[in-house]
Amino acid sequence: MLLELKDVTLLYGRIQALHGISLTVGQGEIVALIGANGAGKTTTMKAISGLRPIAQGSIVFDGQDITKMRADLRVVRGVSQSPEGRGVFPGMTVRENLDMGAYTRRNKAEIAQDMDRVFTLFPRLKEREKQSSGTLSGGEQQMLAVGRALMSRPKLLLLDEPSMGLAPMLIQQIFDIIVEINQQGTTVLLVEQNAQQALSRAHRAYVLETGRIVKEGTGQDLLTDPAVKDAYLGVA
Ligand code: ATP
C-alpha cells in the first residue's frame, strides 16, 4: 500500500467533518473519492496533504507514519496536491508557476526534464509559457494546477475536482491526461463531482456521505451499482 488512512476523524471547531474514514491507495492505482457537496471529500484531501490536522486515527504513506508530519515535509516525501479552485499564482507566468511546484527540489536537470514532460502533456501550457497565469482561461489554469503538482515529481498525486468548471471536451481531455500520468507511474487519488468520468477511469473508488465511507469497490462495480447510479450518476 502506498497510502493507508485508518479511522481518521477531523474537526472544524465543533463541526465533525470526518467520522472515522479508512481507505487505502495501492502503488500504481487511480482511486476516486465521490460524494455530494459537503460529504467531506476536500477535507479528506486536506487530512492527507497535512493542510488540516486530524483529531484521531492514523495516516501511513510509503511505509512511514505521517499523521503528525508538517505539510511541506509531506511534499518532500512525495505527496502533492492540486487544489480545488485551481489556486495558481495569477501574477506569475506559466513557467514561474511550474517552477514553484519544484521548490523542494535541487536537481536542475531533473526539474528541466519534468518541465518538458508537463509541456508534452499540456502543449497549451508550452504555447503560453511566458504568459501571466491570471490571463489564462479556466481550463488552462486547471491544466497549470495539475502541471504544477506534477513538478514536485510526486509518488502520490492528489487531484481535487480536476474537471470543475471545464467544458465537456476539456473534461475528456483532462481525464485522458490523468490516465496517462498514471500509466507513466504516478499513483493518483482523485476527488470528483463528475462521478461518471471518475468511476470509468478509476481502478477503485470510495463513496463518501456526511463524513463516512458508505461504499467501496472497483470503478466498474460502482458504475453499475443501482444506489450509486441513483444518487450520483443522474440515472435510476
Ligand atoms: P464540495 O464538493 O462541496 O467541495 P466536499 O465533499 O469537498 O464538498 P468538504 O469541503 O470536505 O466537502 O466539507 C465537509 C464538511 O465540513 C462540510 O459540512 C463543510 O461545511 C465543513 N467544512 C469544510 N471546511 C470548513 C471550515 N473551514 N470550517 C468549518 N466547516 C468546514
Automatic annotation (TrEMBL):
Entry keyword Transit peptide: no
InterPro entries in UniProt: AAA+_ATPase (IPR003593), ABC_branched_ATPase_LivF/BraG (IPR030660), ABC_transporter-like_ATP-bd (IPR003439), ABC_transporter-like_CS (IPR017871), BCAA_Transport_ATP-bd_LivF (IPR052156), P-loop_NTPase (IPR027417)
GO molecular function: ATP binding
Keywords: Amino-acid transport, ATP-binding, Nucleotide-binding, Transport
PROSITE patterns: ABC_TRANSPORTER_1, ABC_TRANSPORTER_2
Keyword Nucleotide-binding: yes
Domain ABC transporter span(s) in chain numbering: 3-235
Pfam families: ABC_tran (PF00005)
Protein family membership: Belongs to the ABC transporter superfamily.
Protein name in UniProt: ABC transporter ATP-binding protein
Taxonomic source organism: Actinoplanes ianthinogenes
